[in-house]
């Protein structure tokens, strides 16, 4: 299977979102990654339901909604209504992660779990079979445009090993600081999906950058 590419709209032009979504619709992107921040779980805010609904209206690709919010279980049905196809919650934000993942699936979305840089892969042993997308954060969440941290590569290897041992169907996504220089190594050690914001939107030709990532 070729690597899945999920550009992060966080690095788009919020005054012209329709234009950026149209560009992604016409690109090799497989999904659109949408970052929701509450100013509590992370020291930043992005946007909420009305903007997500507007993105859904224009997007022809599935939306992976990355929730950087506390107690995400409060809003599962609202995110479904607003257009999420995959709902990604942070392990660190969920007291009852198993329940939350079952509720996401019951709401007919794919269930994703994101883990912060400090969270070890062995925390996932008991839950991996319920995870459709494991999103390994390669930066501390909250902001685009940061540098990927090196321990990420080892975590991908450990996650790949856990998935194979357990027989899970989980895909491994990497989020933060992904670009054309580090993507080959991320793929080589086991990444299935790459999220990329600034390296795509700040490039001279975003469509071409997406195509180059997809071709790796
Ligand atoms: O979740 C995120 C930030 O918390 C973003 O998805 C991520 O940072 C993507 O942006 P970039 O590729 O610029 O790092
Ligand atoms: Co994200």
Q: What topology does this entry show?
A:
Layout: E1 4-7, H1 17-25, E2 32-37, H2 49-58, E3 63-68, H3 76-82, E4 86-90, H4 97-106, E5 110-115, E6 133-137, H5 152-166, E7 171-175, H6 183-189, E8 193-196, H7 198-201, H8 206-215
Parallel strand pairs: 1-8, 2-3, 3-4, 4-5, 5-6, 6-7, 7-8
Bound molecules: ribulose-5-phosphate and cobalt (II) ion.
Organism: Gelidibacter pelagius
Pfam family, one: Ribul_P_3_epim
Binding site for a divalent metal cation: 33, 35, 66, 175
Care to give the gist of this entry?
The protein is of the alpha/beta class and 216 residues long.
What do these coordinates show?
This protein has 216 residues and is α/β, with parallel strands linked by helices. It has one domain (4-215): TIM Barrel (Alpha-Beta Barrel). Helix content is 33%, strand content 19%. It contains eight helices and eight strands, in the order E-H-E-H-E-H-E-H-E-E-H-E-H-E-H-H. The chain has helices spanning 17-25, 49-58, 76-82, 97-106, 152-166, 183-189, 198-201, 206-215; strands spanning 4-7, 32-37, 63-68, 86-90, 110-115, 133-137, 171-175, 193-196. Strands 1-8-7-6-5-4-3-2 form an eight-stranded parallel beta sheet. Helix 2 (49-58) packs parallel to helix 3 (76-82). It is globular, with a radius of gyration of 16 Å. 43% of the residues are buried. The mean pLDDT is 98. Ribulose-5-phosphate is lined by residues 8, 10-11, 33, 35, 66, 139, 141-146, 175-178, 195-199.
């Amino acid at each position: 299977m070729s690597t899945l590419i999920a550009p992060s709209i966080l690095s788009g032009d919020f005054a012209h979102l329709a234009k950026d979504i149209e560009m992604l619709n016409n690109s090799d992107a497989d999904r659109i990654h949408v970052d929701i921040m509450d100013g509590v779980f992370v020291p930043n805010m992005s946007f909420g339901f009305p903007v997500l609904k507007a993105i859904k209206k224009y997007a022809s690709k599935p939306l992976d909604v990355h929730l950087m919010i506390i107690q995400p279980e409060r809003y599962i049905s609202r995110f479904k209504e607003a257009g999420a196809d995959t709902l990604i919650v942070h392990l660190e934000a969920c007291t009852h992660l198993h329940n939350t993942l079952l509720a996401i699936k019951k709401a007919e979305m794919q269930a994703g779990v994101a883990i912060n840089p400090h969270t070890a892969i062995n925390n996932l042993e008991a839950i991996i079979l319920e995870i459709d997308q494991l999103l390994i954060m390669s930066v501390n969440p909250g902001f685009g445009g940061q540098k990927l941290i090196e321990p990420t590569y080892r975590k991908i290897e450990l996650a790949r090993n856990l998935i194979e041992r357990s027989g899970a169907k989980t895909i491994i996504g990497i989020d933060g600081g992904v670009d054309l220089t580090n993507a080959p190594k991320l793929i080589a050690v086991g990444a299935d999906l790459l999220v990329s914001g600034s390296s795509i939107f700040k490039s001279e030709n975003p469509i071409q950058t997406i195509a180059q990532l997809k071709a790796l």
